[in-house]
Amino acid sequence: MDSREERDDDILSVSEEDDDDIPDVATCQVLVEEFASVTGTDEALAQFYLQDRKWDLERSVNAYFESRNGGGGIRVIKDGEEPELLVTFDSKMVSLLESSSGRVSTEAPDMFKLITWNLDGLDDKHLKKRTKAVANIIESEKPDIVFLQELVPVTFSYLENALPQYVFVAAGTDDYFCATLLLRTSVYFDGHSIIPFKNTRMGRNLLCIEAHIGELKLNLLNTHLESTAEFAEERMEQLKVALKNLTTAKNSNITSILAGDLNIRDKEVTQVGLPSGVFDLWEACGRRPECRYTWDTMRNTNKEIGGRFKPRMRFDRVYLGQPSKPVITPKHFGLVGIEKVLGLQSFPSDHWGIVTYFEVKGKKSSGGSSSSAPVSSTSSH
């Protein structure tokens, strides 16, 4: 079976479902069309909702409208003189928060965790199961902050519904885009802006989030820079914009983190130059060779690369910009999504995700080191 046929099967058939009592394909198609008609959405989103509810149309439609209107989330109401921010909680979200190992507090934790990951949403092969695997990994890892790239509307909607314990902030709504997730029990959203890259040919931008963890103020920069070797000049200019926003808070008490699928090559970083006081976290945390490549066609078989040469690239990166008096210390740099999805011969994405741990200074001993340089990690992930 060729790859196109596999993709069609993944979207249109029900052969991957675990239950034996599912309707036949013709009935499923009718249900998909009815869901899309009632909700005003598309058939891909209909597949997500119906398959998760054993093809019960009424349950699926109700779940959709609950998540859009009556479910938990953040909405801006603009019918008065001043916009109001309305925060609502559905029952699933409340139970998750009540049972969370984290605690809602103004006190900053000793440690916090960040994941950044390109989810390859433009490849529809096994998209549903791959996205569900991503949700499961996020549930398991319990990161405080998540940077996602290459989301598409259907995967964004699915993850937003599957992970109500996170605030979702998206940089777009059409085609593909980035989104940043903040764990409600530890990270507090203060505001955001989107900076379009003026030279982009691919709709790329920089998603900037202002947030705080206790007294720790954060400037979170999530981006997906221009792809392919052909657009190196555009990509380097975009990196300059991102690094400028990373270092603008240097003379304040704000800690900045820039991460995402930068598509960058080492020689391009050398040509642009990293500003003083900016750390590449893979390098700062020990340069472990097993964590170097995040787009690695020798280990990740999601993309079919012809010939004997299998490219390995460090496209995904994390950069840290500290204030003049550093308040966090990077402690670990590892990878997630390195196991194939159960029942498939595919990984969750063609990219590995990066997971990083940060220690909040003053909250826990860092082994007596008073240097502002990050501390290397010897643990594996």
Task: Give your account of this protein's structure.
- The protein has helices spanning 3-12, 25-39, 43-52, 57-70, 91-99, 127-141, 153-162, 232-247, 266-272, 281-284; strands at 73-77, 84-88, 111-118, 145-151, 166-170, 177-183, 188-196, 205-213, 216-224, 254-261, 278-280, 295-296, 312-313, 316-321, 328-336, 353-360.
- It has 381 residues and is α+β, with helices and mostly antiparallel strands.
- The chain has 2 domains: 3-70, Helicase, Ruva Protein, domain 3 (Orthogonal Bundle); 101-360, Endonuclease/exonuclease/phosphatase (Deoxyribonuclease I, Chain A, 4-Layer Sandwich).
- The protein has a 6-stranded mixed β-sheet. Strands 7-8-9-10-14-11 form a 6-stranded mixed β-sheet. A two-stranded antiparallel ribbon has the order 1-2.
- It is globular and about 60 Å long.
- The model is unreliable at 1-19, 70-79, 83-88 and 364-380 (pLDDT under 50).
Query: How is the biggest beta sheet arranged?
Result: 6 strands, mixed
The 3D shape can be described as: globular
The tally of domains stands at 2
Strand composition percent? 25-35%
Supply Rg.
Answer: 21 Å
Q: Overall mean pLDDT score?
A: 83
Strand order of the largest sheet: 5-6-4-3-16-15
- CATH third-level topology of the largest domain: Deoxyribonuclease I, Chain A
Work out the number of β strands.
Answer: 16
CATH class of the largest domain: Alpha Beta
Number of helices in the DSSP assignment: 10
- Secondary structure category: alpha+beta
Order of helices and strands: HHHHEEHEHEHEEEEEHEHEHEEEEE
Gap between N and C termini, in Å?
Answer: 35 Å
Look at the structure and name the CATH superfamily of the largest domain: Endonuclease/exonuclease/phosphatase
CATH architecture of the largest domain: 4-Layer Sandwich
How helix-rich are the residues, as a percent range? 25-40%
Give the low-confidence spans. 1-19, 70-79, 83-88, 364-380
